[in-house]
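Q: My labmate handed me this sequence with no annotations at all. I'd like to see what the chain might look like in three dimensions before we decide whether it's worth expressing. Could you predict it?
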Amino acid sequence: MTEEKCPQLVDYFVVAGLDPAGPWRPLDEDGKPVTDLAVIAKGLGEEVPEGFTCIERTLGGHSAELSAGLINNPHLFLCYRRGRDKPPILDLGVLYEGKEQLKQGWYVIETTPYSRSASLSTGGAPTAHRVFLTYRRALDSQGLHTLGVTDIALLLPSKGEVAPHTFCRVDKNLNTGMWGPALYVCYKRAVAKANALVYEASLISRYPEEDLEAFPLPESVPVFCLPMGVTVESWPLNTKYQLPVFSTFVLTSASGDKVYGAAIQFYESFPRELLSERQSVRLGLLSVVDRRPITNRSLQVKKSICVLSHWPFFTVFQKFLTFIYRYSISGPHVLPLEKHISSFMHNVPFPSPQRPRILVQLSPYDNLLLCQPVSSPLPLSGASFLKLLQNLGPENACTLLLAVLTEHKLLLHSLRPDVLTSVSEALVSMSFPLRWICPYIPLCPLQMADVLLAPMPFIVGVHSSYFDLYDPPTDVVCVDLDTNTIFQSEDKKPLSWRSLPRKHGKTLFNTLTNLHKTLEKICTPGQEEATLEFLLTDYDQIYRRQKQLELEIQEVFLRFMSCLLRGYRTFLLPITQAPSDTTTDCSSLFNLQGFLKSRDRTQQKFYSQLTKTQMFTQFIEECSFVSDRHACLEFFDECVQKVDVEKPEEVRLIDLDETHSGEHTVFIMPPEEPQEPDGSECPALYSYETFPTLKPELFDQPQDQLRVPAKGSAPDSPAPRRTKQEIKLAQKRAQKYSAVPDMWSKCLLGHCYGLWFIYLPTFVRAESAKVRALHTAYDVLKHMENRKVVLPDEVCYRILMQLCGQYGQPVLAVRVLLEMKKAGITPNTITYGYYNKAVLESKWPSTNQGGRLRWAKLRNVLLAVAQFRQPIKRRQKSGSVGSPAGVRDSAGRNKAVDENDNNVSSPSRGGLAGKLQQLLTPTRHRVSVRRAASVDDRRPGGGGGGSSLSVGSDLDLTDTPSPAYPLRRSWDANQEGAGLEVLMSSCSLCRSCNSLVYDEEIMAGWTSDDSNLNSSCPFCCASFVPFLNAEICDLGPISRPAATQRTAEPPRYLTPQTVSFSSHLPPHLTVRLSVPQGSSVGGAPQVTVAYLSPLVLRKELESLLENEGEAVLAQPQFLDSHSIIFWNLVWYFQRLGLPSNLLQLVRASPLVSQFTQSSAVRVRLLWDTLTPDTDQWPPLYILWRIHKTEPGVRISRVDRSVLRWVGMNEVHKAVTLFLDTLAKQPGSPRIQRSLYREFLFLTLAAMGKDHVAAFDKKYKAAYSRLSSTLGREELRKKRAQPPSPKAVDCRRSFHPPLEC
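A: Here is what I predict for the chain of 1300 residues:
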């Protein structure tokens, strides 16, 4: 089986910054921060100081006098100065002297530059009423990226003036006089940098250097790595070291796929030699007058390293990038940096079901863990709901949910780039299952800010510096994540979360409020600088609590959306006619008016806006057709069902994911360090002053990468795939039904039919009449409905719908949907999508009634007449209505018409003598017809009164419902005495009590665990693994008589040669192939495999198809490579009479290489063991047959007596006789079969299957009678108890042609 390349975890590694050799494109600089404030009294002749700017007008153009309300107005004005010669001012304030104390670190502007009082109150007022402006300044050693004041403004609220967006207003009135309007000061903060030059980021190096064919490296990646540009800065020598800043961004390709970027921005030294004199002066590295170098400043440049991937493993990428950065600033090292980068990119596979956990050892001290992302039904994203609630609060979070649902233009901005992406991702995730399809740029570089002028909804995140250069458009809702404010245009009605549906919106707000209080407790400020003691003791506990809180917040939004769209599936309109131009319109796929009428009248406006959005239209299309989000939508449907209760807020929708614990883990070791020829360590030669330019020759080329098996099934094939929700639901149903005897057998039966439908695509592909095969599958569905089979999921219907679309049968797909609804099953999102795909893309038959339709009607009339005349002809030919009809050969003998259909014709003998004579023929090498009742003959009045030799059920065959479908032949009736015969039996030996456990007892002992191979012994209650035995016999031209007594011969397989075949089941369940030594060409090989429960077998089959594809089921190697699955499928398909092509693989197997090649293979399913142990007491029915077939030998007294007592309804006397006979035998004879089984098989051999039901009643009555005399415990020790009701029901549900 060929394998495809594993999806690469990381596509590119990029280094972005300022290329020393490339052109430097300058960007607009940020405004210089405010460093000084002053208050001047123009009325007293004071002038604006040099370098200061006076604020003479308010934002609305009115006078900005600070003392307008004073009697003796000195005409005070506020002035400020920008610069970089001192630390910037951080905040402004107003001090009411005498009413409050001055805060620590704040300064008061008490005097003007001309030493006059700067009090804003009345000049003659007492000290207690003076008002002063205050400010707070940054420390000299404070970090360079501290927020500083960059702009100041005054406003008059009475004139309708409001603070501009991103401005902070000091809520203290500056005018404390008796008259005049209230005056307030507001200011804007931005990052206060040192002397800096800003340039556009460029690509320094990348790996790989060539573009990938599927995903070329976008040219804009460096700009996203450094959205604010590359800054060259001069720092004082005592400046605190700046830690690396982690940021993420999302790129959307032309096809709509998301590409996630993770970057680390850091500073490193920059050579002064690369700067011009003018640049050095601007950076403060040269004195302005004499151009003398200033040595007490350092030169730093910003650089970024980044990885691009199709999966948002942001935490993993952050650890990897941090390791690479730390590796570059430490050293020296033996290995170059490039070795670690290539090792991570080439050797770390994408997590898959085969390797769900990948532990990457980056170094002896650094490791990271990748877990399979598809384990969560929710879409994978880089969202952080903790940061969403922490930065927005409950009210604004609900308001933004309303804005997203109604598709507004949203502009998020912050001074923290990592917060922008996390909150933006959370915004588009909290409306799940609706998906945002409009422009979405979580971290937009300033050079690309023109997207804000787009005439469509968008969600864009920008750095707050954007507002230093541009004003936001008027129709955009601006969200400041740093100040938790939402700014909306005044000419529109402001958004309010109260516009959400009242009940669900209030529940959402209250729950978020409670979670926000919890969040404030566990996410305390300063936690990042926690002590080592804190990290060692409380970090794990707090991290686990944060993870749980993250899921709880996400669950709140999911519950709201589930309540919001509750019942939407009932308004979906399936396509039931030939498609037209408007078939795919949302109005044709969804009953919009019915949906709106089902909502409360007070919510009509909101729902009307919601249903008009592009998100809702796409959601309906995704629910109606095949989508890559089918697993997510199916999970959402399950959530909708859960919240359909009185108190949906108490229902848990998302569980804390701990599934990765204890799973298979792949360890990826770090690159191996080279050694000297003498075995000593190589010297450490690699150290870096700055992050290096990557050298291609130092990278390791990809060699043996970890791969995942190719998925052979077509992308549109649902056959091997069940969603996680379907698997969980099937497990819950199995657990529920395992405690109910009559439901457990139907559950097993449903999984058996599910196995066949999983195999159906392979079967249809191999058939020449594919349409007929599809109709056969449809008849199987109807037969399942008639038998009330409990289906574990919708896979049976889904696969048939998908095949209808594949082979152009839309009408049949509609019939399948109607059959599904008739069974009371509402199709989920996946099944519904495949149905609409089938009826939409297939060619519908013409509606014109042409000659073909008329001929079809005439054909149906003739067939109907022939069916009415057939019983008359049958009665005339056979002379007896109860005699089954068959096809006669030249000798006039009845023959089987269809082996898989279990049609059989018995000789025209009447009475018990004929039955006994036929049954006493040895069962091993008889070449007569298969002894099984026809499915068609089981219909009422269909000849069920004749001899019936099948003992697989205790039902009267005349009362058994039968399928109305023709089954595939596996045996040609005209080739009697030629070909291969496969004898199979599931009878297994319990090693604990040396008892034979039969098929229905094994089924009753299985559990609902789809990973448990054990069954429970009905006698000792011990767990054991049952086995399925198969013996392949060559029925080639036979010269010896057909009545050879092989049963009486001792076993010939005393020294078997054992050959093991590979299997993905547990190692102790190896397949044993036994071939007799020295046997002739006609020797019969035996195969023994584990007998799997249908639940276990389905899990194994789905795993096989997921790994190797559907084609493996049709390959000759299937039998040898996966023998356990193969023989179990053959067993179940034969038991249910379902058609398959599996028997054709037997002819190509090495098992039959010694036999005569023949195209005919048939299977006989036996109830008893294939190889009886001659050391044990021989079973009664074998003794009966030996005595009956030996001429002159009479039937044993025990057999005659047992049969007489059973016939006389005195079974308790037969049990007593048999126990007494055993007690009189010399020694202690060992019996492997229970008393019930001995008498049952003897009754079958002598009287036929029609007496099974009556025998069961008689035996139960005898057991009850004997229990009162011998005691139940004594009877149990002697294995005299009847089978359990669960076992009897399993035998009743599975009524296949088992032979004794």
